[in-house]
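Worked example 3 (structure in, sequence out).
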């Protein structure tokens, strides 16, 4: 009877890399939304500065996206070690 109960139980295996990436993607997702939202607001307030604002918007977007890519790569690096 106990062998049947032991065979019926399942173990929970967590992939901490996937969990870590899921948590790491929250920050850049919020950050990208803030970057584009504030850029649109700034362009609406000062249309003559659209070129400069969009340049800084893309720089902010790329720096924020790097955080998401690091969150994807770092679990693989530490898992292999």
């Amino acid at each position: 009877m106990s062998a049947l109960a032991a065979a019926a139980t399942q173990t929970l295996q967590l992939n901490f890399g996937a969990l870590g990436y899921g948590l790491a993607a929250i920050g850049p997702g919020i950050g990208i939304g803030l970057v584009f939202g504030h850029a649109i607001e700034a362009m609406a307030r000062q249309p003559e500065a659209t070129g400069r604002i969009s340049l800084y918007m893309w720089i902010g977007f790329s720096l924020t996206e790097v955080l998401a890519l690091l969150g994807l790569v770092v679990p693989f690096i530490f898992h292999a070690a």
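Notes: The helical segments are 2-8, 16-24, 26-45, 50-80. The mean pLDDT is 81.
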